[in-house]
Amino acid sequence: MVSHKFKRRSLLTAITLLLSTTLAAQDITTARPVTDERLQSPEPENWLQFRGNYNGWGYSPLDSITPENVGRLRPVWTMSTGVTEGHQSPPIVNDGIMYLTTPLNIVYAVNAATGDVLWQYRRQLPFDLSLLHPTNRGVALYGDRVYMATSDAVVVALDAKTGAVVWEKPVEDYRTGYYMTMAPLAVDGKIMVGVSGGERGIRGFVTALDADSGEQVWKTFTIPAAGEPGNETWPGDSWKTGGAPVWVSGNYDPALNLTYWGTGNAGPWIGDARPGDNLYANSVIALDADTGALKGYHQYHWNDSWDWDEVSTPMLIDIERNGRKIPGLVHAGRNGYLWLLERKADSIGFIEAKPFVYQNVFTSLDPATGRPEYNLDAKPGLGRAGTYCPSLSGGKNWTPAAYSPKTGLLYIPANENYCTTMTGQPVEYRPGQDFTGRASAQASIREGSDHIGELQAWNLATGEKVWTHNYAEGLANWGPVLATGGGLVFSGGTADRYFRAFDAGSGKMLWEQRLNSGITGVPTTFEVGGVQYVAVQSGWGVDASRMQRAIDTLRGKETLVPQGGVVWVFAVEK
Predict the structure, then answer these.
(1) What is this structure's pTM?
(2) CB neighbours of 221 closer than 8 A, spacing ≥ 6?
(3) Helix or strand or coil: residue 53?
(4) Which residues lie closer than 8 Å to 315 by C-beta, 6 or more apart?
(5) How many CB atoms lie within 10 A of CB 326?
(6) Residue 215 domain boundaries
(7) What's 72's domain CATH number?
(8) How many domains would you assign to the chain?
(9) Catalytic positions, please?
(10) Is the CB of residue 316 less than 8 Å from the CB of residue 54?
(11) pLDDT, tens only, 404-452
């Protein structure tokens, strides 16, 4: 008698052999160059950039995997990266070739259907580099090249077929606190990146490099210099070290020729140290793709004192409201509010905002501009504690939400019931050193709460929440979200190491698979040889592990999460 386990293993082996045979002819040299036209209208079978398209939706129209068959989703191949810490890069796929990055700036090119490694590039990082966030969020594809932004503030261009270095250009000096974790954005012959390091007293910026040569085309600072509009919102010379970093890839509107970027915290963290609105920290900015000129902005909260980086770039979603079609910008903020803005040729308008998790800082929003007023008891100061919710980790951190045009729903990876008490202190700027001015920060869980991590779905046409999935008590959610045309939502993000699929309409959990480590990687889906796959990287670390450790301390219970990165690729068992 043959066991069920043996039958299942035999079926998986047969699938793998069939796919390997079918795709043996898949050759990296036959993958097409990635053009502007393809980036603007990506083929359903490919996943060509960070969130799949310029709108930033995290959505694929592929529909072969459905609520009816997702229960038969099984691993087809895996690949160990040999690296620990947080693996956050999406598997990017062009014509059956997968490109992904790991911590320490390693790039892999892999046969997407079989897992065969085609080439590897490993960045030799400086020996004196200090990594606060040892992660990388992926590559950009353009022409016949692969582009990566590195931890030592360099953009590297690689030959997509061989992995050979074509050029590498530093964009700033890593020794003064600059580094990069984001996936570059490719637009019209330019490779755009932003810099991180807001906790080290940098002055943030977005820059565009020529895709062919690496030469700088333009550079736009996220903090205005003396004499520029908005500089008056920074006292004295504080603008020179004011932060406003850019952590996550931008989105692009070809019709307006504008790129949109989220900016992070001002520095130091405590607003008393830099009185004023502090433009353009904690904002979305709109930049002309040709020149880098600032065309519009919206600041989500002024004089930030909570470390609420608003680094997630808003999604470009057109929404019907009261008979009017709004060319929208949708942002689930670290400050716990869901923002609906309007993109225009020369400005960004405010439509509405409402909390998606408990928030005790904003007392009101200006109905015309969205500018918040504050509960000052919840605002940390120099030598003064403030207790605020959501915590400094936010209602949603960098982890991308997703939007499905099929359901009209926005899917938000949220954290509820988790707060911070923080006190500030004066801090002196020293290049490359800590510039937060945080004297203490202590986490807390709201009394009577039974969970923290959630996955939420919001109807953007009505502005109402449709469903919520609460994760088990004590688990935070750091799971980027993927939505598909098959009516599914995929996400990991919890320290129990499960990767899950939900019914996109109802929120019912339909499938889960425990992986080797926690999952903060961005999931993607693609098709090769008529087979739809779902891919994600596991590998726990960085801020997700820090938040979970704080929760464990409060609960007196340790969550053990094995380390080590692995690429997982799934398909439906026939």
Answers:
(1) 0.95
(2) 203, 204, 205
(3) coil
(4) 55, 56, 57, 251, 329, 330, 331, 401, 403, 410
(5) 18
(6) 4-572
(7) 2.140.10.10
(8) 1
(9) 307
(10) yes
(11) 999 999 999 999 999 999 999 999 999 999 999 999 999 999 999 999 9
